[in-house]
Model the fold of this input.
Amino acid sequence: MYRAVLVALSAIALSAPALGQEPTAQAERVQTAIETWLQQRTEVEGVTGIAAYVSLGPAGPAIEAFAGTTGRASDDPPVDQDTLFGMGSTSKSFAAAIILKLEAQGLLSLDDTIAKWLPQYPAWGDVNIRRLLNMTSGIPNYSETEFIARAWVEEPKRNLTAEELVQVAYPTGTDDLPVTTGYHYSNTNYILAGMIAAKATGTTYPDLVQELIIKAHGLHSTFYSSGTYPPEVVGRLAHGYFENTACAEYQPPDCKQSWNQPLIGRDIREDSTSWMQAAGGAVSNARDVSRWMRAVFEGRVVPPKQQAEWLQMVSTKTGEPISDISPEDPQGFALGLVQGLLPDGQGWFYQGTTLGYRTLYVWFKADNVLVTVQTNSQPNDEVSKLHEAASAIHAALKEQ
Done:
């Protein structure tokens, strides 16, 4: 439930946009597309606004579009370029980038084990960093537990430590969470990766994000905190609304009511993000998300050896390594990145879903078009249709 939604993008048809069209006409159609999406999805998804950034190439041109307001109050301002949204698990790419940068510096290796860096967790000692980042470790997901649900509901401003998060999932011999094989999405993997990065450098994970990601790549509207954000950042955040009635992964199969029922309808903008940390705690705007993902896919973040490792995938069906996706294996998970088989080709995408926010990027590889959309609610997965906004934007680009 509280994991990245690896959205089914089969509804998005890849087709080369008519880049030679008059830019104003394209921008107007993109604006109409997101306004239409917002009008159709406001009630069912509980959203009030949407931001979009369309990158038509590494050096431009680009289109920005905004619709709606930052919240449900009558005096909430419109969404604009300064509005921030939670990145959720799209910022797992930060953790992967940091690990790969440290490998390039000779400070660690993807083949290093938890036993080497975090010997306090012997039950997971033989799991290597690569398996953490590609979600094949078998380690349970702390964010699907009753402990985290109670923290959200009862102590929303509590600043949890990374160690507290990991301890929720660590086996003690009583009431242990289920171990998995193959591919299984677990936020615990990325908390552990962040802890390893900090141990290898003697630097806090927030400082690593600031120096190696935000400053290094000019992300002027991107922020990362392992706890509560300061007022100047919170003031730029859209209000974020929790509307998800689904039961958590570790509730009984016959669950009738989610542990998170008291959260329904709540604005979580001022709540602590400490429960996410390296698993997805950053906030940003669509422009910066697009700038960052362009740098990732164009190989401007890490050296070629690490870039190749970054893009190595496992099948989300089997957990086995795959060199490419196919109709039999239509989706591959790399290191904090996802590739999917779309109707007219392959594309990289990721939807980060967190309490109150969703951020989705889609890199249409054949066109070299990157679409980023953000909005301010977390509904049930089955009614979350942010990918339809990306689809509508892409369709708007190719209209004549």
